[in-house]
Amino acid sequence: MAMIPVEIDDSLIERIALRAAELAQQRDGDRSADDGWLRGASKIAAYIDCSRSRVYALVSARRIPIHHDGSALIARRSELDRWLRAGGGRRP
Q1: Burial category of 52 from C-beta neighbours within 10 Å (exposed 0-12, middle 13-18, buried 19 and up)
Q2: Three-state DSSP class for 51?
Q3: Domain ranges across the chain
Q4: What is the pLDDT of residue 30?
């Protein structure tokens, strides 16, 4: 495949970089507003309004969207919200 040389002036590169930074900041701002991480069974339990033992039971049954950071449980708020909306908190 032959390469075609393209000349781009510095002002265009600067405008592209500024726009990319704006978009990244908006995306991060939207995500951080409602999509932060919860660390620990107590915080997860408080968020989904249940007991810590219920969180551990759900984790043990692999029924809740939880991640592990070493031995700590962590969960993304948006994943828990989606799980709850889908009825994930109901007992089988």
Answers
A1: middle
A2: coil
A3: 37-85
A4: 54
Q: Which two tokens stand for residue 71?
A: 């031995």
- The pTM of the full predicted model, rounded to 2 decimals, is 0.62
**Higher model confidence: residue 76 or residue 21?**
76
Instruction: Give 81-85's long-range contacts (Cβ < 8 A, gap of 24+).
Output: 81/34, 84/48
Longest dimension (CA), the chain: 63
Tokens of 60: 């043990």
Strands 67-69 and 37-39: unpaired
Pairing of strands 37-39, 72-76: antiparallel
Task: Give the rounded percent of residues in the chain with a pLDDT score beyond 70.
Answer: 90
Please report the sign of the dihedral spanned by the C-alpha atoms of residue 42, residue 47, residue 53, residue 58. negative
Residue 38 pairs in a beta bridge with 75
78/74 Cα distance (integer angstroms): 12
Q: Quote the distance between the C-alpha of residue 2 and its chain's center.
A: 41
